[in-house]
């Protein structure tokens, strides 16, 4: 943790103080009702802008350490607030229509929820600093010496590479079935039916090791030469996922890999670093181009033809469409009185319910049936999946035709426990994001788990609050880690017995 800076302290006092003042003033104005609701919504929007500016200014001085959190702030603003920015700046006269709010008071509450959530996340992130100060200092001062030097890592790297290449065949087969299902039924139609394709059980199980094997491979901190083949295979797989029409897998994985390499680059001496100031400019340009191409993909998926919009209009439309997660929050506020608040807490913990039902061991132990998510009336009446429940509540026809609002950890926290839930869940997210800042100093198992969790945290503004828990502590992944460790330990101990004998027989020197 860096020392206190009077300059940054003064700046933060002014900016965050202004944020809190705007939030409190907006909340006070709602007591007067009528026209003041619109003013309150405008002030809350202004508070959000000032707060984001304050956060970015505070992150820049330690951007390498704080890069995971900076990326999270970016995805939070795009996925939850992209539509808000476009609507306020370009469609203010019809803002209630564009943001799907029933009135300005509901718009104010929705903005208050997302602003308070991000503020809670950042406060927890900063307050958690002393807990990880020693490891963060080690990265700054010791570089690569701060990374784990476990002698098993070279063996673990080789094992994970073999598993990655073997499971890639099964993963490509499974992915091809998904692509064919979309081609047969259309993008929206693929959500309204269970995939009828028969994937052999052995292939399905083998494909499950593809993601963890790649995470373990990266966690062993391979050299550039060792990275080439696994990265090429994984890159081809990610590009192929775009043919399913779903962009989130490619984007989340690409961002996770970027975070990994930025943190890894910070271990190098300054003269040897790849990510420098000039790289940021190129990265920003590539990000805008990526937005343009991803939006084109979405329009081809929806309409089957290329857009005639200009480059700028397409990028703005990307921000507007990606910011659609805000409507999950605003529709939660609109329909607040229609929920049974005695059971809404179940929406927050749905990933655990899904895990218990779909895990072979727990399903057999408790006599449960697997949950197959498909957009039908029969499924939605009994599910605690908030994405399904909210969409069906607001627009049943849209839901049954394959459309949906999706979900958001912010909306789930709010509908479950109100503002208190938003603050507590947000603080938990901030704490874990601080943990990621020093993940390269952890053991290979912890680092692999962090890489898997990062994918969920990048996408959590549009995902379940606790999906990362069941993904990280997946029994298949945990068993895989144990198996890799035991195999590496066996090979290592076997080598310590074999190599001395070889030297005694004059069969050559021991290889490093």
TrEMBL record:
<feature type="transmembrane region" description="Helical">
    <location>
        <begin position="444"/>
        <end position="469"/>
    </location>
</feature>
<feature type="transmembrane region" description="Helical">
    <location>
        <begin position="279"/>
        <end position="298"/>
    </location>
</feature>
<feature type="transmembrane region" description="Helical">
    <location>
        <begin position="475"/>
        <end position="495"/>
    </location>
</feature>
<keyword id="KW-0472">Membrane</keyword>
<keyword id="KW-0812">Transmembrane</keyword>
<feature type="transmembrane region" description="Helical">
    <location>
        <begin position="162"/>
        <end position="182"/>
    </location>
</feature>
<feature type="transmembrane region" description="Helical">
    <location>
        <begin position="67"/>
        <end position="92"/>
    </location>
</feature>
<dbReference type="Pfam" id="PF14296">
    <property type="entry name" value="O-ag_pol_Wzy"/>
</dbReference>
<feature type="transmembrane region" description="Helical">
    <location>
        <begin position="202"/>
        <end position="220"/>
    </location>
</feature>
<feature type="transmembrane region" description="Helical">
    <location>
        <begin position="43"/>
        <end position="60"/>
    </location>
</feature>
<feature type="transmembrane region" description="Helical">
    <location>
        <begin position="414"/>
        <end position="437"/>
    </location>
</feature>
<feature type="transmembrane region" description="Helical">
    <location>
        <begin position="12"/>
        <end position="37"/>
    </location>
</feature>
<dbReference type="InterPro" id="IPR029468">
    <property type="entry name" value="O-ag_pol_Wzy"/>
</dbReference>
<keyword id="KW-1133">Transmembrane helix</keyword>
<protein>
    <submittedName>
        <fullName>O-antigen polysaccharide polymerase Wzy</fullName>
    </submittedName>
</protein>
<feature type="transmembrane region" description="Helical">
    <location>
        <begin position="104"/>
        <end position="125"/>
    </location>
</feature>
């Amino acid at each position: 943790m860096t020392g206190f800076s009077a300059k940054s302290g003064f700046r933060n006092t002014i900016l965050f103080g202004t944020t809190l003042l705007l939030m409190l003033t907006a909340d006070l104005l709602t007591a007067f009702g009528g026209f003041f609701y619109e003013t309150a919504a405008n002030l809350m929007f202004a508070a959000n802008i000032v707060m984001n500016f304050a956060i970015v200014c505070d992150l820049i001085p330690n951007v390498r350490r704080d890069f995971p959190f900076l990326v999270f702030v970016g995805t939070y603003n795009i996925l939850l607030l992209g539509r808000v920015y476009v609507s306020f700046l370009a469609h203010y006269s019809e803002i209630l229509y564009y943001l799907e709010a029933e009135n300005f008071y509901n718009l104010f509450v929705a903005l208050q929820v997302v602003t308070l959530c991000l503020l809670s996340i950042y406060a927890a992130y900063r307050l958690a600093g002393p807990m990880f100060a020693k490891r963060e200092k080690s990265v700054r001062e010791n570089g690569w010496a701060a990374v784990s030097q476990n002698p098993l890592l070279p063996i673990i790297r080789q094992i994970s590479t073999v598993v990655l290449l073997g499971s890639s065949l099964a993963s490509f087969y499974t992915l091809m079935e998904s692509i064919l299902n979309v081609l047969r039924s259309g993008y929206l139609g693929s959500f309204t039916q269970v995939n009828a394709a028969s994937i052999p059980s052995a292939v399905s199980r083998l494909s499950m090791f593809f993601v963890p094997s790649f995470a373990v491979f990266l966690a062993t901190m391979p050299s550039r030469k060792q990275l080439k083949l696994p990265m090429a295979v994984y890159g081809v797989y990610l590009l192929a996922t775009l043919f399913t029409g779903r962009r989130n897998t490619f984007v989340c994985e690409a961002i996770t890999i970027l975070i990994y390499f930025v943190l890894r680059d910070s271990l190098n001496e300054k003269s040897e670093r790849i990510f420098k100031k000039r790289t940021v400019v190129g990265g920003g340009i590539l990000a805008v181009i990526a937005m343009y191409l991803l939006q084109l993909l979405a329009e081809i998926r929806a309409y089957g033809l290329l857009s005639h919009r200009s480059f700028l209009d397409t990028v703005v439309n990307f921000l507007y469409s990606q910011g659609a997660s805000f409507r999950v929050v605003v529709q939660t506020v609109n329909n607040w009185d229609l929920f049974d608040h005695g059971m809404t807490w179940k929406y927050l913990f749905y990933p655990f319910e899904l895990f218990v039902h779909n895990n072979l061991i727990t399903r057999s132990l408790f006599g449960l049936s697997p949950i197959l998510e498909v957009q039908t009336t029969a499924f939605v009446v009994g599910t605690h999946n908030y994405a399904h429940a909210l969409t069906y509540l607001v627009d049943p026809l849209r839901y049954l035709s394959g459309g949906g609002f999706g979900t958001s950890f912010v909306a789930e926290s709010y509908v479950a426990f109100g503002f208190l839930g938003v603050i507590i869940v947000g603080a938990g997210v901030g704490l874990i994001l601080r943990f990621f800042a020093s993940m390269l100093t952890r053991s290979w198992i912890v680092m692999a788990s962090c890489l898997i969790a990062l994918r969920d945290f990048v996408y959590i503004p549009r995902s379940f609050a606790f999906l990362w828990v069941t993904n990280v502590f997946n029994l298949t992944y945990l068993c895989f880690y144990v198996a890799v460790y035991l195999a590496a330990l066996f090979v290592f101990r076997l080598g310590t017995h074999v190599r001395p004998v070889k030297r005694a027989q004059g069969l050559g020197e021991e290889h490093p």
